[in-house]
Amino acid sequence: MTTGSAASIHQWTKVCESAEKAEIIAERDQLKLRVLGAAVSVVLEAGVTPDLYAELRRVWSRCLDESDEWLFHARDISVPASGRSQERPFQATVSSTSGTTTVAAGTFREFASNLTTAVTLAGITECRGDLVMLHGAALAEEKTGRAVALVGRSGMGKTTATKRLGAGLGYITDETVGVDASGRIVPYAKPLSLIVGDPAAPKKQVGPDDLELLMAPAAPMLASLVLLDRNPDAADPKVVPLSHAEAIIELAPHTSSLGDVNRPLSRLCGILDATGGAVRVSYREAGDLAAVLAAILERPAISKTWRSVLAEDTQATQGLPHPDAVRSMVLKRAELLDAVEFPLPDGQGTELIAMTGQGVVRLTGIGPAIWRALATPCDLNGIAGRIASLIGLPEGYESHLLKGVEELKFHGILLDSSATETSES
User: Fold this and answer.
1) Which domain holds residue 255?
2) Residue 5, domain member (yes or no)
3) Are residues 289 and 339 in the same domain?
4) Within-domain flag for 12
5) Measuring CA to CA, which residue among 239, 235, 383 is closest to residue 299?
6) Residue of 41, 80, 96, 344 with fewest CB within 10 Å of its CB?
7) Contact, 388 vs 370, CB < 8 A?
8) In sequence order, what are the residues at sequence separation of 6 or more whose Cβ sits closer than 8 angstroms to the Cβ of residue 18?
9) What are phi and psi of 239, to 5 degrees?
10) pLDDT tens digits, residue range 51-91?
11) Do 115 and 151 have their domain in common?
12) In the 8-state DSSP scheme, what is residue 316?
């Protein structure tokens, strides 16, 4: 009886050990990451040894999600057919609720670089429409939680600045600054992608812990927005405040999925108000930024001077279509994602920033007046009559009006009757 009980216990122990071992193996083949607040799973399918797995965990340490509640598990993911070969022995599957993609490479360094790209894109896809996502780095003061975003195209020194400034400010991200509706930055403390050795080789992925970057506060709030202008000939760093219109035009190319955000330009304007307006900083070395960031972080919020124009009254305004309108070009506003209007500094008129599916356009001169005149469709003569009642028209205005209309049509701001008929047919 005793012998039988001991055998049963021994058998049960072996079953438990096997289950535990299987669980460890399953966990070893997966990275559970939190990317811009979204759950992203990496299933390691081939090529990654235990030592390389440990390296991946180290460089992604600040994005690991060890919570019990998780949306993915290595054994639950349907892995697509792979094209793995001897030339590309490293392979993984990156998954989120939005989809799955395969990452493969011939060397571990290339694989790790490709993996960072795939994980970032998965997070961006998950968060589109919710976050305003800027291509940049972000760091925050530990005590206040006030954060600065450093935005700019590749080569402007964002990652180098992050390495230098991360010794005194908490590291939030060096890739995508995701700002929610409250102004909070959602952390994405990914590994930094550094040029090591051959500049043509894939960038090496180095974890923030290995670089001894400070931890970011739990809920960093965006307090400053800096557009970087790295200039090897710059003597001292130069800080130039930007108008909201200037800032939006410069920021728009450095955003991800901005068109998926509800009223995207209004969201950007709100961010700019809260951060005291964006500034452009021309500098030579990353260390030069440290000398000016403290003052930039102290810039106070500013009052709203802009207005959204999509919700304005669209009742007919003065100025009727020309009697020959049936034979002339009848114009109408195109459907826009958003549009905001700003008063000019001299008080003489306004400028309009509009966003279409093609991009962001800045309207100055007669452009805003043409937009306002087309609260309801009309022809060129009708526009002239409506503008005259608002701002007046100089002698010989016809060529300027026609040029302005053609420019707005080119940018997709206005449609004529032929374009409308074509889209409806």
Assistant:
1) 132-304
2) no
3) no
4) no
5) 239
6) 80
7) no
8) none
9) -105, 120
10) 999 999 999 999 999 876 555 544 444 444 445 556 679 99
11) no
12) P
